[in-house]
Amino acid sequence: MQPLFQRNYGEKRMFYMWINVMFNRKDEKRVKEVGPDRAAAEWILRNGGSVTFAGFEKPIQDYNILPMGPKTNNYYLEVINARNISLTDNGLEHLVGLRHLKVIDMNSCIYITNLMLLREVANSLEYLDVGNCERLSDISPLADMQKLRKLILTNTLGKNRETVIADLAKKLPDCEIVD
Q: CB–CB of 30/39 below 8 Å?
């Protein structure tokens, strides 16, 4: 039989993972009600990050300051600051439908392992920071992101790091890759 403290640790860990999954789950009904930009902003704020809409000077960190009302669909999300928050791969489904997103900072998002859903913002994304995403090992989905101008990969990718970065640099010649 396991000591009590070990069982509690495992149970707590499972509970926190469940919370992460719930906070990252996409609610399609909510997207239909408020649009993809507002729904994505709610997701980031719910997880502790901040967002900036086109035409806004300052980032929004408070859920209660988000634009409200019938004209909400006229607000476009341009910046997501998700630095060091508990985003998960399934949470990236919130990017579907975003057409004006230019910046994503996911530095130190330790649960991010797959960037496949970033293809949803390939036509607008200019800056991406996935540095210190320790579990990230595949950046191949970024190869088609021709608008990307700066990519930060510090402390990611593992073994074949230099080869992978060199290959990506050939495919994205206009992108500054920070290692």
A: yes
Provide the residue-wise pLDDT of the chain in tens; the chain has 179 residues.
Answer: 445 444 554 555 565 565 666 778 899 999 999 999 999 999 999 999 999 999 999 999 998 998 876 555 679 999 999 999 999 999 999 999 999 999 999 999 999 999 999 999 999 999 999 999 999 988 999 999 999 999 999 999 877 889 999 999 999 999 999 98
In DSSP terms, 77 is beta-bridged to 53
Closest CA to 135 of 87, 66, 68, 72: 87
CA distance 47 to 19: 10
Q: Among residues 152, 149, 142, 140, which one has the least CA distance to residue 173?
A: 149
- Please give the domain boundaries of the chain with CATH numbers for all domains: 4-178 (3.80.10.10)
- What is the identity of the amino acid at 53? F
Please give the radius of gyration of the chain, using alpha carbons only, rounded to the nearest integer: 17
Global confidence as pTM = 0.87
Residues 6+ apart with CB under 8 A from 66: 38, 41, 42, 45, 60
Q: What strands lie across the sheet with 176-178, from one edge to the other?
A: 50-53, 77-81, 103-105, 127-129, 150-152, 176-178
